[in-house]
Amino acid sequence: MEASPQGRAHALRLSRAYPPAIKAYTVLLGAEGSTANLCHRSECYVRLAERLVSAPAAELGKSGAGGGDVARRAGGGDGGPPSEMHSGQDAHTLADLGLRDAQAVVEAGASKWLAEGHMWSARAHLLLEAYSTADTACGLGLAASPSEREAKELREEQLRARRELPQAAQPGAAPAAQAAGGTSGGEFDCPMCCSLFWEPVTSPCGHTFCRHCLARSLDHSNRCPICRTVLHITARKHPVTITLQKVIEKVMPQQLEARRQELTASHVIEAAEAVQVALLPLFMLEHVLPGQVMTLNIFEPRYRLMCRRCLDGERRFGMSAMEEPRSPRTIVGCEVEITESRQLHDGRYHIQVRATRRFRVQSVEDQDGYRCARVEFYQDAKNSGGGAAAAPSEAAVGALFAELDELKTEITTLVKEWLGRARKLGQHSPQLNLLVKHMLSRAGKAPDTFEAFSFWAANIVPRSTAQARKILRLTCTKDRMLEVRKLLQEVLAQTRAQEELSGAAEKRGAAGNVDGGAEEGAERKKERRE
Predict the structure, then answer these.
(1) How far apart are CA 177 and CA 163, in angstroms?
(2) Sign of the C-alpha dihedral computed for residues 446, 451, 454 and 460 taken in this order
(3) CA–CA dist 432, 279 (Å, integer)
(4) Which of 117, 196, 213, 265 has a CA-to-CA distance to 180 between 20 and 30 Å?
(5) What CATH number does residue 183 fall under?
(6) Please, what is the angle between helix 465-473 and helix 450-459, to 10°?
């Protein structure tokens, strides 16, 4: 006997097939509104969102077509994603939809579903990082005469919400703790150090802190110390809140000077500026080099969430190639800055990024389905000619610069020769012509400094992932320029071989045309004689 539509919807929900269950409940709600179906659809939305944020990034990368292919399609390729992990709405959108259904259940006032409606509302608020509201929803659910099972789940969710809440915001907190949170202190006091703001910076969620206080907090967690919102920002580079800074300078100049002396004496500012470690979200696609420009189509829910958080923050994230399982400290990558962005009606993002600086990964952790890494930024050593670590003499530096200038001239000549030959071959090969245009667009204009020039030259020629990784790891400008010269020579040798093959094919075609013309002329003469 065939099951009813209601029975099929319940079976899908109980088997944790949430996307088809959501569709089934939507059809049922369209035909006949029901508080029970609305509550069940809210449950499906919330559970699917929880699945997305709790699944490890490595598991999401493996499901379907494999981590590298999935990320590559997210960067602009064709082909449909394999499962709901790689398509559909992101976790925050799903949580918001579940919250709307749960609120509708609560507003309906049906006593049978009231406690469960509050429970799904609380779990949706937890996903949306509204921990105080989640705590309130749990309290309302417990007051709605829940069943034993519902009461147990509501108490568990309430404990989760209160664990995330700052101590000052928890119910029953002591006045001293509230003062430490900045709720009863001066209007110009930092809620973390309870002292006058020094270089005040405002987070995307709207809370303001001393720059060094926020930097110290972000060294341990990338969440706002007040509301626990995920922050993808670098406090040491985040712009100062100018209006607040000027008000403090004008209203309390003496207190500000005393604050400066206090921080200078304790060396807090110098210690904060000396730290070069940052927490970056990672987009696992391919290796990019400094100066490279790339356009990305972000469609995976986890990366759409990451992209939205980056756009709310400093518009920066890290890019690296998908690595084999190994120590995180062996991974290198490049920080990229979002220069242009456009969100489509279906939630996808079209963004253009430009690579800025290199980093080494120290540790990796999961953040709502995507990876975040603690990274250390690095650059080429000064006067890096590949010699001893001792300070070189002026003569040695002059000789090194002359050698680098000679390498730069040689590489420029090789680049021009390759582009000329590639353009000539591109007249008969649209694919090669598109490749040349792509290389020129991603490299941009040639820079002046030797370090930047070495990356520009590497960006303008085709390269493999292994070659890009090797170029990224090098911290000696001379060694990198030698590696780029070797790469150019290999590419030029391949291009010359293609030219020879193309020339031989043209000669064979021309000879065939001549022979064919002679045969055709002989046939015409024979016809005339006849």
Answers:
(1) 15
(2) negative
(3) 39
(4) 265
(5) 3.30.40.10
(6) 180
Look up residue 57 and give its amino acid. Answer: A
Q: What single-letter DSSP state applies at residue 341?
A: E
CATH code, 324: 2.30.130.40
d(CA 477, CA 380): 6
User: What is the pTM (predicted TM-score) of this model?
Assistant: 0.65
113 and 252 fall within a common domain = no
For residue 139, which amino acid is it?
G
CA–CA separation, 526 vs 470, rounded Å?
69
CA distance 530 to 522: 13
DSSP secondary structure code for residue 189 in this structure: B
* Residues 87 and 299: beta-carbon distance below 8 Å: yes
Tokens representing 450? Answer: 């030797």
d(CA 438, CA 366): 33
Kindly report, residue by residue over 355-377, the tens digit of the pLDDT. Answer: 999 999 988 888 888 888 889 89
Q: What is the DSSP string of 3-65?
A: PPHHHHHHHHHHTT-HHHHHHHHHHHHHHS--HHHHHHHHHHHHHHHHHHHHS-HHHHHHSSS
**Is 304 within 8 Å of 85 (Cβ atoms)?**
no
User: 490, exposed or middle or buried, with CB in 10 Å at 0-12, 13-18, 19+?
Assistant: middle
Residue 517's nearest CA partner among 441, 172, 525 is 525
How far CA 165 is from CA of 204, 224, 225, 507, in Å, comes to: 18, 11, 9, 78
Expressed as residue numbers, the domain containing 38 is: 5-56+86-165
Maximal CA-CA distance, the chain: 119
- Is residue 389 situated within a structural domain? no
Do residues 300 and 70 make contact, with C-beta atoms less than 8 angstroms apart? Answer: yes
Q: Which positions of the chain have pLDDT values less than 50?
A: 1, 63-83, 168, 173-185, 386-389
Q: Are 329 and 374 in contact (CB under 8 A)?
A: no
Q: What token pair was written down for 323?
A: 């690595």
Q: Which two tokens stand for residue 257?
A: 């000077």
Residues 190 and 129 in one domain: no
Percentage of the chain beyond pLDDT 90 is 12
